[in-house]
# Entry
Amino acid sequence: MSETSTRKRRRSRHTEPLRKVSYQIRASVADGIRSAVDAGAAASVNAFVEDAIVERLKELRRERLYAAYEEAAADPEYVAEMAELDRDFDVTVADGLSHDEEGW
# Structure
């Protein structure tokens, strides 16, 4: 893509406004966070906590997606439909390739 591309990008969380929130965590967890930050794991306690939460949210989204995949794979009607679509697209596998290039 060129530099002048109009491709949309995800909004960086660093450009979002900050919101002050308050949570209670165990003292040992807070001490562990502080130790990690002091050791250079993050620029600040806020950054460390935000990064950890963002990673957990990604993990939860991934779990929901995989559960949906498993549900779809267990649905015989869906599996049959996907197999039919796969067969329909088989004719396009070598589409645009010369006879010599088909075995790439």
Summary: The helical segments are 27-38, 45-73, 76-89. DSSP finds three helices and no strands in the chain. The longest helix spans residues 45-73.
